[in-house]
Write a structure and sequence with these properties.
Elements: H1 2-20, H2 24-46, H3 52-79, H4 92-112, H5 124-141, H6 145-163, H7 172-199
Helix pairs in contact: 1-2, 1-4, 1-5, 2-3, 2-6, 3-7, 4-5, 5-6, 6-7
């Protein structure tokens, strides 16, 4: 259980780092770290009773979230003629303060919701909710489309983490189908960003405000 708590703390640190990093390549590497940590969660949650379902799910999460997604993001970044510095609409300090506020709210909410006993181990619910919050913050508080894709992935990681307690109910096919859907979504978004970059001078979504009829 101590190792499980350490993984949860590491995920919380990743969430706060998401909001403070100013380089796209570092942000992509952090996405790989988060994916690897998520891959360990089903095994640690199952503990000594880990079975084929948990092993298959952990392997799929590591392959897709820890390797596949970061590789696609890094490949997309290398093909785009884009400034590698993250451009925020909300400053890094304010984003970090918002992340800490989201963490504190998650810890408070955990004490207020009437969860059935034993469903959520300590720190799992705050880590999941903070992961969702950090991902959504990236979507709305950063200008580059690639950063918003990373935020979308972060929010989906939080949703996956919330569903981890249900992974022992034999729902592996549903979970793998969700992972496949997200994989396709990221693939499509990568293609879209590539074509947007080829057609327009910038992938800064803030420039939509300057469009005229």
């Amino acid at each position: 259980m101590e190792l499980f708590h350490s993984v949860m703390v590491a995920l919380l640190c990743c969430n706060l780092a998401y909001l403070a990093i100013s380089r796209l390549r570092v942000l992509i590497r952090l996405t790989a770290v988060q994916g690897a940590l998520l891959a360990a969660v089903p095994l640690l949650f199952s503990g000594a009773a880990a079975h084929g379902h948990a092993l298959a799910l952990s392997f799929a999460v590591f392959a897709i979230k820890g390797v596949g997604f970061p590789w696609l993001l890094a490949r997309t970044l290398s093909r785009l003629e884009v400034n590698p510095v993250v451009e925020p609409t909300l400053g890094f300090h304010l984003s970090l303060v918002a992340g800490v506020a989201g963490l504190l709210f998650s810890l408070w909410l955990e004490t207020r919701l009437p969860f059935p006993p034993g469903v959520f181990p300590p720190l799992l619910f705050p880590a999941a909710l903070t992961t969702i919050f950090a991902g959504l913050t990236l979507v709305v508080a950063r200008k580059k489309a690639l950063t918003q894709v990373i935020g979308y992935l972060g929010a989906e990681n939080g949703i996956f983490l919330l569903g981890t307690p249900l992974s022992g109910q034999g729902s592996v096919w549903l979970e793998l189908s969700v992972l496949l859907d997200v994989f396709v979504a990221v693939f499509v978004m990568g293609i879209a960003i590539h074509h947007i970059n080829k057609t327009f001078e910038s992938i800064d979504v803030g420039r939509f405000c300057s469009l005229r009829d």
